[in-house]
Design goal:
seven-stranded mixed sheet; 9 strands
Protein backbone atom coordinates (compact mmCIF):
# COMPACT_ATOMS: atom_id res chain seq x y z
CA UNK A 1 0.00 0.00 0.00
CA UNK A 2 1.35 3.42 -0.99
CA UNK A 3 0.68 6.23 1.49
CA UNK A 4 0.47 9.68 -0.04
CA UNK A 5 0.12 11.54 3.25
CA UNK A 6 -0.89 10.99 6.86
CA UNK A 7 -4.37 12.51 6.74
CA UNK A 8 -6.99 10.30 8.36
CA UNK A 9 -8.91 9.67 5.14
CA UNK A 10 -5.75 8.46 3.40
CA UNK A 11 -4.82 5.99 6.14
CA UNK A 12 -8.29 4.66 6.94
CA UNK A 13 -7.64 2.09 4.22
CA UNK A 14 -5.08 0.48 6.51
CA UNK A 15 -7.78 -0.10 9.12
CA UNK A 16 -10.11 -1.52 6.50
CA UNK A 17 -7.39 -3.91 5.33
CA UNK A 18 -6.57 -5.09 8.84
CA UNK A 19 -7.67 -8.68 8.15
CA UNK A 20 -5.17 -9.16 5.34
CA UNK A 21 -2.63 -11.85 6.18
CA UNK A 22 0.23 -9.56 5.23
CA UNK A 23 0.66 -6.06 3.84
CA UNK A 24 3.62 -3.88 2.94
CA UNK A 25 3.13 -0.17 3.62
CA UNK A 26 5.30 2.40 1.85
CA UNK A 27 5.54 6.01 3.00
CA UNK A 28 7.93 8.84 3.72
CA UNK A 29 9.61 8.98 7.14
CA UNK A 30 7.42 11.82 8.52
CA UNK A 31 4.24 9.99 7.51
CA UNK A 32 5.32 6.68 9.02
CA UNK A 33 6.43 8.46 12.18
CA UNK A 34 3.05 10.19 12.48
CA UNK A 35 1.34 6.81 12.17
CA UNK A 36 3.44 5.61 15.08
CA UNK A 37 3.19 8.55 17.48
CA UNK A 38 0.21 10.76 16.61
CA UNK A 39 -2.24 8.41 14.90
CA UNK A 40 -0.91 5.05 16.18
CA UNK A 41 -2.08 2.83 13.35
CA UNK A 42 1.00 0.64 13.59
CA UNK A 43 0.17 -0.39 17.14
CA UNK A 44 -3.55 -0.73 16.44
CA UNK A 45 -2.94 -3.14 13.57
CA UNK A 46 -0.16 -5.19 15.13
CA UNK A 47 -2.60 -7.84 16.43
CA UNK A 48 -4.57 -8.08 13.19
CA UNK A 49 -2.12 -8.43 10.34
CA UNK A 50 1.52 -8.94 9.49
CA UNK A 51 2.50 -5.48 8.28
CA UNK A 52 5.87 -4.40 6.96
CA UNK A 53 6.57 -0.66 7.13
CA UNK A 54 8.95 0.56 4.44
CA UNK A 55 10.23 4.15 4.29
CA UNK A 56 10.68 5.68 0.85
CA UNK A 57 12.94 8.53 -0.21
CA UNK A 58 11.77 11.21 -2.61
CA UNK A 59 13.07 10.49 -6.11
CA UNK A 60 14.48 7.06 -5.26
CA UNK A 61 12.78 4.15 -7.11
CA UNK A 62 11.49 1.21 -5.07
CA UNK A 63 10.63 -2.17 -6.57
CA UNK A 64 7.21 -3.21 -5.25
CA UNK A 65 7.47 -6.64 -6.86
CA UNK A 66 9.08 -8.26 -9.89
CA UNK A 67 7.08 -6.03 -12.21
CA UNK A 68 6.13 -2.72 -10.59
CA UNK A 69 8.49 0.08 -9.61
CA UNK A 70 7.37 3.17 -7.65
CA UNK A 71 9.06 6.53 -7.26
CA UNK A 72 7.75 9.10 -4.78
CA UNK A 73 7.70 12.81 -5.59
CA UNK A 74 6.58 15.83 -3.58
CA UNK A 75 3.28 17.53 -4.32
CA UNK A 76 3.18 19.70 -1.18
CA UNK A 77 4.49 20.05 2.37
CA UNK A 78 1.38 20.57 4.53
CA UNK A 79 1.26 18.20 7.53
CA UNK A 80 -2.10 16.87 8.73
CA UNK A 81 -3.82 18.93 11.43
CA UNK A 82 -3.45 16.25 14.09
CA UNK A 83 0.34 16.52 13.88
CA UNK A 84 0.05 20.07 15.24
CA UNK A 85 2.83 20.96 17.65
CA UNK A 86 3.97 17.38 18.07
CA UNK A 87 7.54 18.19 17.13
CA UNK A 88 7.49 15.88 14.10
CA UNK A 89 9.80 17.43 11.55
CA UNK A 90 10.33 17.10 7.84
CA UNK A 91 8.47 18.46 4.84
CA UNK A 92 7.72 15.22 2.99
CA UNK A 93 4.06 15.08 3.96
CA UNK A 94 2.25 15.29 0.63
CA UNK A 95 3.56 13.02 -2.09
CA UNK A 96 2.52 11.37 -5.30
CA UNK A 97 3.85 8.17 -6.80
CA UNK A 98 5.00 7.40 -10.31
CA UNK A 99 4.49 3.72 -11.09
CA UNK A 100 6.33 1.95 -13.88
CA UNK A 101 5.53 -1.45 -15.34
CA UNK A 102 8.96 -2.90 -16.03
CA UNK A 103 7.52 -5.38 -18.54
CA UNK A 104 5.38 -3.10 -20.72
CA UNK A 105 7.16 0.18 -19.99
CA UNK A 106 3.82 1.78 -19.13
CA UNK A 107 3.71 4.55 -16.51
CA UNK A 108 1.03 5.76 -14.12
CA UNK A 109 1.04 8.82 -11.86
CA UNK A 110 -1.03 8.76 -8.66
CA UNK A 111 -1.48 12.12 -6.93
CA UNK A 112 -4.59 12.27 -4.70
CA UNK A 113 -3.45 15.50 -3.04
CA UNK A 114 -2.33 18.37 -5.24
CA UNK A 115 -2.24 21.89 -3.80
CA UNK A 116 -0.91 23.41 -7.05
CA UNK A 117 0.00 22.42 -10.58
CA UNK A 118 3.59 23.59 -10.91
CA UNK A 119 6.49 22.86 -13.22
CA UNK A 120 7.67 19.94 -11.11
CA UNK A 121 4.28 18.27 -11.33
CA UNK A 122 4.10 18.94 -15.07
CA UNK A 123 7.35 17.01 -15.46
CA UNK A 124 5.88 14.03 -13.62
CA UNK A 125 2.73 13.75 -15.72
CA UNK A 126 4.01 14.92 -19.13
CA UNK A 127 4.87 11.40 -20.34
CA UNK A 128 2.54 9.30 -18.16
CA UNK A 129 0.17 6.83 -19.81
CA UNK A 130 -2.38 7.17 -17.02
CA UNK A 131 -2.93 9.87 -14.39
CA UNK A 132 -4.95 9.53 -11.18
CA UNK A 133 -5.42 13.06 -9.87
CA UNK A 134 -6.78 14.90 -6.85
CA UNK A 135 -10.48 15.50 -7.51
CA UNK A 136 -11.48 16.45 -3.98
CA UNK A 137 -13.36 19.67 -4.76
CA UNK A 138 -15.07 21.16 -7.79
CA UNK A 139 -14.64 24.73 -6.51
CA UNK A 140 -12.32 26.22 -3.90
CA UNK A 141 -15.25 27.44 -1.75
CA UNK A 142 -17.28 24.25 -2.08
CA UNK A 143 -17.40 23.50 1.64
CA UNK A 144 -18.73 26.92 2.66
CA UNK A 145 -21.21 27.02 -0.23
CA UNK A 146 -22.78 23.79 0.96
CA UNK A 147 -22.59 24.57 4.66
CA UNK A 148 -20.14 21.74 5.24
CA UNK A 149 -17.33 23.85 6.71
CA UNK A 150 -15.48 27.12 6.37
CA UNK A 151 -12.08 26.03 5.06
CA UNK A 152 -11.21 26.43 1.40
CA UNK A 153 -10.00 23.57 -0.71
CA UNK A 154 -6.60 25.12 -1.28
CA UNK A 155 -6.09 25.65 2.46
CA UNK A 156 -6.55 21.89 2.85
CA UNK A 157 -4.05 21.12 0.11
CA UNK A 158 -6.47 20.52 -2.77
CA UNK A 159 -6.63 22.71 -5.87
CA UNK A 160 -10.14 22.79 -7.38
CA UNK A 161 -11.13 21.03 -10.57
CA UNK A 162 -13.00 23.90 -12.20
CA UNK A 163 -12.03 27.43 -13.20
CA UNK A 164 -9.32 28.92 -15.35
CA UNK A 165 -6.73 27.99 -12.71
CA UNK A 166 -8.33 24.63 -11.88
CA UNK A 167 -6.81 21.25 -12.66
CA UNK A 168 -9.29 20.02 -15.31
CA UNK A 169 -8.01 22.07 -18.23
CA UNK A 170 -4.39 21.14 -17.53
CA UNK A 171 -5.35 17.48 -17.07
CA UNK A 172 -7.32 17.42 -20.32
CA UNK A 173 -4.31 18.79 -22.22
CA UNK A 174 -2.08 15.88 -21.23
CA UNK A 175 -1.33 13.13 -23.78
CA UNK A 176 -2.12 10.38 -21.24
CA UNK A 177 -4.43 7.63 -22.51
CA UNK A 178 -6.52 7.75 -19.34
CA UNK A 179 -7.09 10.68 -16.97
CA UNK A 180 -9.01 9.88 -13.81
CA UNK A 181 -10.08 11.95 -10.81
CA UNK A 182 -9.81 10.26 -7.44
CA UNK A 183 -10.18 11.19 -3.74
CA UNK A 184 -13.53 12.90 -4.44
CA UNK A 185 -15.31 14.61 -1.54
CA UNK A 186 -19.00 13.88 -0.98
CA UNK A 187 -19.79 17.56 -1.69
CA UNK A 188 -18.38 17.33 -5.22
CA UNK A 189 -21.08 17.40 -7.94
CA UNK A 190 -19.06 15.16 -10.27
CA UNK A 191 -20.22 12.18 -8.21
CA UNK A 192 -23.62 12.64 -9.87
CA UNK A 193 -23.39 10.95 -13.26
CA UNK A 194 -26.17 13.18 -14.61
CA UNK A 195 -24.68 16.48 -13.44
CA UNK A 196 -23.50 19.12 -15.91
CA UNK A 197 -20.10 19.04 -14.19
CA UNK A 198 -19.74 15.32 -14.85
CA UNK A 199 -20.82 15.74 -18.48
CA UNK A 200 -18.27 18.52 -18.90
CA UNK A 201 -15.47 16.29 -17.67
CA UNK A 202 -16.60 13.47 -19.94
CA UNK A 203 -16.44 15.86 -22.86
CA UNK A 204 -12.84 16.61 -21.95
CA UNK A 205 -11.98 12.91 -21.91
CA UNK A 206 -11.64 12.79 -18.12
CA UNK A 207 -13.03 9.93 -16.02
CA UNK A 208 -14.28 9.86 -12.44
CA UNK A 209 -12.84 7.09 -10.31
CA UNK A 210 -14.99 4.39 -8.74
CA UNK A 211 -14.58 1.36 -6.53
CA UNK A 212 -13.24 -1.63 -8.44
CA UNK A 213 -11.82 0.42 -11.32
CA UNK A 214 -8.95 -1.32 -13.07
CA UNK A 215 -6.40 0.11 -15.51
CA UNK A 216 -3.68 -1.39 -17.68
CA UNK A 217 -0.51 0.52 -18.46
Amino acid sequence: MLLTDAEFDHTIGLLMLREESSLTVYGTNPVLEALTRRFPVRELLSDYADLSWCPVDIGKPVDLDDRLRATAFLTGSKPPRYVGGSGLGGSEWEVGFRLEDKVTGGTLVYAPTLPRWDEEFTEQVASADCVFLDGTFWTDDEMSRQGAGSRTGRSMGHMPISGEDGSARALAALPAKRKIYTHINNTNPILDEDSKERRWLTGLGIEVGRAGLEVEI
